[in-house]
Amino acid sequence: MRSRLSFLADPMIAVLVFATLAATMSPVAGEARDVARTVSNIGIFLLFLVNGMRIARGEIWRGFVNWRFFLPLFIWVFGVMALAGLGVSRLALETALPPAIALGFIYLGALPTTIQSATSYTNLANGNIALAVVAAALLNIAGVFITAPLFAVLAGGEAANLGNEVILRIGMILVLPFMIGQAVQGWTLEWVLHRKHRIVWLDRGVIGLAVYVAFSGAIEQGLGQMLDASGWVWLFGLVLGLLVIAHLANWLASALLGYPFADRITFLFSGAQKSIAIGAPLAAILFKPDMAGFVIAPLLLYHLAQLVLAAPLASWLARR
Q1: What are the φ and ψ backbone dihedral angles of 77, each rounded to 5 degrees?
Q2: 1 found inside a domain
Q3: Residue at 188 is within a domain
Q4: What is the largest CA-CA distance in the chain?
Q5: pLDDT band at 302 (very low <50, low <70, confident <90, very high)
Q6: Within 13 Å, how many C-alpha atoms sit on residue 58's CB side?
Q7: Could you give the angle at which helices 30-54 and 276-286 cross, rounded to 10 degrees?
Q8: Displacement of CA 87 from its chain's centroid (Å)
Q9: Rounded average pLDDT over 75-100
Q10: Structural domain of 255
């Protein structure tokens, strides 16, 4: 019973819910929003600096060696899931959801997996945790470079204009700190690993702030008035439909690939889940504040739903 309800104790759920409610009841606006966005960017820089420190370079090399597992996983995450997001986006437009929210499904599909839940739930399900750690590291590193251009290709130039300014901001706020972290890793890795339980709150704080700033912009633009009851039903329904289909199709694909049961578990949690740790900060860079909240709405709901699904699913797989 405890493992089945463990998602209720996940602090990330509380952080996301609190950030969303705070933006709904007291959205940041005007000069205060500019200050909040600056603070958010500083936090994103620190987050990716720490990511560079804690993702061991040896894990990256091990991923390239085991290409029979990781090549299909990359194709799944950045190919199959991206196309699934594109398909759901087209369906969302047919349901009269706002175009920016429909665009969010493409953005969702182009994101990498989430590190913490993919590894922790793989471990809970008795999957191949070593593969999960390497997979999460490789996919998140790749996501920093792949997600933005992949989204631009699928969404079209008008929806995602990766101009020089945006590319520079991605480089300065995401890529540069990560590379610095990798460069100093020999001196900092042990220090970071010994403080990982404290550093995880940096992740949660930065993500929460990015969600708060993004949703504040959406609230100011009238998100509540744009979606009536049927609109919210369609949004929740499309997110849950994508989540369920992604997990079922992923599990079937791992069987067709002939992976051992433990590796199939790793493929499932590394392939069907999506990262708000990359998605929220990157959205803060790619989109203006009055649009970012709409775009990350499907991602926020998907992330919350995957946390709720993951605990009982992992317990069920462990019993098998």
Answers
A1: -65, -50
A2: no
A3: yes
A4: 56
A5: very high
A6: 3
A7: 130
A8: 19
A9: 92
A10: 6-319
